[in-house]
Design goal:
Blueprint: H1 11-31, H2 50-53, H3 57-64, H4 67-77, H5 79-143, H6 148-175, H7 185-221
Helix pairs in contact: 6-7
Region (Disordered): 1-47
Protein name: VPS37 C-terminal domain-containing protein
Domain VPS37 C-terminal: 129-229
Amino acid sequence: MTTPPPLPPLPQQQQQPQEQQPQQQLQPQQSGASLPPPTTTPLTVPELPADLVSKPAHVLEDFLTRPKAIHGLIHILSPEIQAKHAEQLQVTAAITQTRAPALEDRLARELPPLREAAAQALASAKSRVAEWASVETDMYKALQRFSMPALQARMDMAVAEAEQICDGLGSSFLEAPHGSAASGATASLQADDAEVAAFVKQYRRERKTYYMRKEIQERWKEERVGRAF
């Protein structure tokens, strides 16, 4: 009897060798030596000042918002910048030392005249102060008659004077003889009328002055002075 030919493999059996090939290809790569880690150079961070580190967080946040402060901190922490500043300081010190003798000579030459001028100006100022003291005294004496108490006293005197004038004018009119015995009755009456009219006119004028001054005096006492006569 003849044996039949073998059957073809199933589809799953055909895919297994194909799937195993990539795994077999990847195994040598995975089993190989691992790559070395990248080399990194450590950063050297300078130490911050102790005064700055001890500050609270809100102060440091405010510090970081100031470009000038950060720029100054960089200048403090950078050795290169410090060396540059030290070099500049040495150059400046050398220039100062070379200029110092010339400045000392100039100071010795120009300072004494300036001191003498300052002393003269001080003496003149002191003399003017003394002169002003005497002038100020004379000024206050001249203004004394225009002060409020002096003006009040003058107003009181003016009111009293106006009242005395009115009283004296009335008394003199009443005591003076009017007309004469030799004259007639008509002439005596005419003379009396003229004298009375003149007296009334003068008395009214003086009395008006008195009342005006009296009103000003009252306003002055009440501190509501409009004008002074």
